[in-house]
Amino acid sequence: MSRFFRELLMRANALPDLYDVDGPDGRIVSVLFDELAVAPVEDLCLPIPGDPRLKKLTDLLIAAPADHASVAKWASRVALSERSLSRLLAEEVGMSFGRWRRQLHIVLALRRLSAGQSVQAVAIDLGYESASSFVTMFRKMVGKPPSRYLLERSRLR
Question: How far is CA 14 from the centre of its chain?
Fold first, then answer.
């Protein structure tokens, strides 16, 4: 989010509920809608489930993102069948196990890359065989390679 957009949101948040649509407050809201229409949309949320078994699973995955055990193995670690794990995840977070794990990798990667770690180091830390396999996954999930994504994000700030 750009600084301008952030400030605009904060200003609009302070407006009264019944602002003058034709006055300065109305113009602020109009600009806010214009900015919202062109704002980049990203699908980078990482929903954390409320079910205690799934919460344990997500905690384990966050603690060991390089562990690429099968869904069946992860399910047995939290005392669920593979089918129950898949069903519960779909109900609670709206994603498959594989999608949730890839989304976790994106979030962790962005945190590490933003802190200055190399793509190679991040790929190894997340359990990828090579930087290119990590970049391929990143591009499929985000739509662009990590370096371009970070460059574009830094321009918005």
Answer: 28
Give me the tens of pLDDT residue by residue for the chain, a chain 157 residues long. Answer: 567 877 888 888 888 888 888 999 989 888 887 776 666 545 567 888 889 999 999 889 989 999 989 999 999 999 999 999 999 999 998 889 999 999 999 989 988 998 889 999 999 999 999 999 999 999 998 888 998 888 887 776 5
% helix, strand, coil for the chain, step of 5: 65, 0, 35
Q: What's the whole-model pTM score? A: 0.69
For residues 32 and 70, membership in a common domain is answered with no
- Examine residue 45 and state whether it is found in any structural domain, yes or no: no
Count of structural domains within the chain:
2
Domain hosting residue 26, numbered range: 3-38
